[in-house]
Structures are given as structure tokens and as C-alpha cells.
């Protein structure tokens, strides 16, 4: 079965991990600090990133650092993985779903404008498939309100919009380094931000809420062993073993990006001219790192095409089931039809194989199966 996504590991990655295993620090050591600087450099921010154990942990940490809690509203997209919404819900926030733009599948600023209230704390957009959110449009909608813009960039590390790197477009940005993502730490994630104080809160939260810095302690003279916990937190520390893998992968991020774009171009060329299909779009000024190739079929045959490709050994996927369709949200009164553009997008979407080690021959095999299905099977 040809997978829809897969990690790209080489001997230098293995050696980077082996070096850590031979050393003194398996966690909370120098490889973590180095990786946090590497992520900040790619994101274009001066403050080192906060490395965490997953993309979900990154969202939890970011929402906590933003001060999200009971009584707050978080506006987000339904066209995402569960965690974009649930990590705010678990902190007590009310989740408000806004619709997406039909071209990119990203949060639509016009829909967000209709949803903002005086209880809105965070607007959380997702770089669907790797295409950056419309950060300028969302900032215009937010205006001078005390609302943070969060970019869930699980799909898009290394991307940019109008020359600004993903990581510098929003107040807070979260990354995921799951094996299918643009670079991997096996499991892992990171948070970056424009405000050093918010980033500091994120760092404290991911470290169980503990502080040791003398200027943050209430008791000043107890001894060098002393620590305090002024706020609650969790242990979301990424170990050095995984951070070393991430730093080494970062050296090939430009290469990964180039190959993902070449695969996207090949799919676009091979699938052009079929009225039944909608191919991914790229807005002017956007430099995506294509994590997905989100093909859409218009004629109601998504399930048939999905089954046809799976039966032919092509491990396609669907990204994503609208979040509010999930039982937890349905049990709390969220109804289908809430975001019609997102639902229409979901009903036609099918994610084709996309990873740097995919060969041109394999891409052409997928194209041939789809063209055959669309043109010959009715």
C-alpha cells in the first residue's frame, strides 16, 4: 500500500539521534535548546520556540499561554484535526466555528467577522494542507480588540505569506512534527510567539508550571534547590533524542519543500482538464509547503473514488471530518449545516499521497488511476 504520508529519514538523522544516546543528556539538555533556536529561526522570531511533545500539546500550551479559560470564546475552523478545537475546550472555552474559504479551505475572515463577540479571546486559523492562513484579513477583522490571532501551522513549517515566514504572521503559532509532517521529531511540536511574555508563559506551562528563576520566586532565601509553582502546568517536555532528530531534519527542510512543490505541480499537470475535479489553489503571495494534496471531486463520487484508490493499493485519506460533527460536540448542541462551505469541502475532499520520497512514477500511477476512474466509471 502506497501511504498518503511518510517520514523521510536518512543516515544523518540516525547518527544525530545516536550522538545524543551516547551523551549525557537524554532530555532537558542542549539538543532541546538548539532545536528551539532552529525553529525560531525558521519562524522568523527572536524568542526561542517552546518545544513540546506533540502538535496537540503545542495547541494546549498556546491556549493556556493566551489565558484561555471558562467564559471565553475561541473562534476556529471545523476543517481541521480535533485538537485545534478540543485543546481550547478542555480549558473551559466555548468553541465557535466559523466557515472556510472555498478556494483554500482556510478560515474565512468574513465568517469570523460575523462570529466575534466581546467574549472572543482567540481566533485560531489553520494552514490547511500547507497554505498559510489569510493573516492580514483576519487581523483586519480583529481590529483593535484584545483578541489573539493563533495560527495552527501543523501543516506549514517553512512556508510564508508575502515574504513573512509562517511563525511571524500571527501572535501565536503552533507546529507539529508528526512523521507525516514537513519535518519530523517522531512525535513533537512547538510554540512560537511575537510577545516574549506570552512565550514565557508557554514555557512555564509545558514545564509543569514550575519556576526556579530568582526574580520569579516568592521565597528568596531557601536554597539553590528551591522551586515554586505559581500556576498549574503539565509535563510536555520534548526529549533531546527527538529534538536532535528535528534539528537534523531542519537542514533538509528547503529540499523537502521543493520536492513537495514538484509533486504538487506534477499532480496539477496530470489532473488538469477534468471538470469533475477541483485542484488545490495557491493565492498570490503564498509560499506553501504542501503537507497535503487535497483533491476534490464534485460529482458525489468521493466514496467510490476513495474505495477505488484504496483497492488499487493507494493509501489515500480524507482531511477532515468537520469537527462539530463529532459526538462530543453534537451532544452539546452543535448541528450539521453550521458551516456549509466547510461541509461541502469535506464531502468532495480526498488527500492523495504526498511525501518527499514519493517518486514521479508513483505520482503518475495515482494520476492514471484517478483519470481512469473519472473518465470511464460512472
From TrEMBL:
<dbReference type="InterPro" id="IPR000653">
    <property type="entry name" value="DegT/StrS_aminotransferase"/>
</dbReference>
<protein>
    <submittedName>
        <fullName>UDP-4-amino-4, 6-dideoxy-N-acetyl-beta-L-altrosami ne transaminase</fullName>
    </submittedName>
</protein>
<keyword id="KW-0663">Pyridoxal phosphate</keyword>
<dbReference type="InterPro" id="IPR015424">
    <property type="entry name" value="PyrdxlP-dep_Trfase"/>
</dbReference>
<dbReference type="InterPro" id="IPR015422">
    <property type="entry name" value="PyrdxlP-dep_Trfase_small"/>
</dbReference>
<dbReference type="Pfam" id="PF01041">
    <property type="entry name" value="DegT_DnrJ_EryC1"/>
</dbReference>
<comment type="similarity">
    <text>Belongs to the DegT/DnrJ/EryC1 family.</text>
</comment>
<dbReference type="InterPro" id="IPR015421">
    <property type="entry name" value="PyrdxlP-dep_Trfase_major"/>
</dbReference>
Amino acid at each position: 500500500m502506497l501511504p498518503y504520508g511518510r517520514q523521510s529519514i536518512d543516515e544523518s538523522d540516525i547518527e544525530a539521534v545516536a550522538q545524543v544516546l551516547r551523551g549525557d543528556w537524554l532530555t532537558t539538555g542542549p539538543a532541546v535548546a538548539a532545536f528551539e533556536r532552529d525553529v525560531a529561526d525558521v519562524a522568523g522570531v527572536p524568542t526561542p520556540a517552546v518545544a513540546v511533545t506533540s502538535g496537540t500539546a503545542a495547541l494546549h500550551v498556546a491556549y493556556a499561554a493566551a489565558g484561555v479559560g471558562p467564559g471565553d470564546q475561541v473562534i476556529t475552523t471545523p476543517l481541521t484535526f480535533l485538537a485545534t478545537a478540543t485543546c481550547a475546550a478542555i480549558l473551559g472555552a466555548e468553541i465557535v466555528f466559523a466557515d472556510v474559504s472555498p478556494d483554500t479551505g482556510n478560515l474565512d475572515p468574513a465568517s469570523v467577522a460575523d462570529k466575534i463577540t466581546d467574549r472572543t479571546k482567540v481566533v485560531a486559523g489553520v494552514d490547511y494542507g500547507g497554505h498559510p492562513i489569510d493573516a492580514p484579513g483576519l487581523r483586519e477583522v480583529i481590529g483593535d480588540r484584545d483578541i489573539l490571532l493563533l495560527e495552527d501551522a501543523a501543516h506549514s513549517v517553512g512556508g510564508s505569506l508575502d515574504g513573512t515566514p509562517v511563525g511571524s504572521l500571527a501572535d501565536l503559532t503552533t507546529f507539529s512534527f508528526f512523521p507525516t509532517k514537513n519535518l519530523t521529531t517522531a512525535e513533537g511540536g512547538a510554540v512560537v510567539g511575537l510577545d516574549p511574555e506570552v512565550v514565557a508563559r508557554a514555557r512555564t506551562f509545558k514545564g509543569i508550571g514550575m519556576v526556579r528563576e530568582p526574580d520569579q520566586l516568592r521565597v528568596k532565601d531557601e536554597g539553590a534547590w528551591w522551586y515554586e509553582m505559581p500556576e498549574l502546568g503539565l509535563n510536555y517536555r520534548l526529549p533531546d533524542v527527538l529534538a536532535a532528530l528535528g534539528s537534523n531534519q531542519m537542514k533538509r527542510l528547503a529540499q523537502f519543500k521543493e520536492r513537495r512543490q514538484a509533486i504538487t505541480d506534477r499532480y496539477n499537470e496530470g489532473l488538469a482538464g477534468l471538470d469533475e475535479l477541483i485542484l488545490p489553489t495557491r493565492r498570490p503571495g503564498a509560499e506553501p509547503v504542501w503537507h497535503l494534496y487535497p483533491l476534490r471531486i464534485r460529482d458525489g463520487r468521493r466514496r467510490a473514488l476513495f474505495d477505488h484508490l484504496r483497492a488499487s493499493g493507494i493509501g489515500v485519506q480524507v482531511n477532515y471530518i468537520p469537527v462539530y460533527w463529532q459526538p462530543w460536540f453534537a451532544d452539546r448542541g452543535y448541528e450539521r449545516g453550521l458551516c456549509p462551505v466547510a461541509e461541502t469541502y469535506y464531502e468532495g475532499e480526498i488527500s492523495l499521497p504526498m511525501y518527499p520520497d514519493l517518486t514521479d512514477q508513483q505520482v503518475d500511477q495515482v494520476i492514471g488511476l484517478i483519470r481512469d476512474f473519472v473518465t470511464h466509471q460512472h
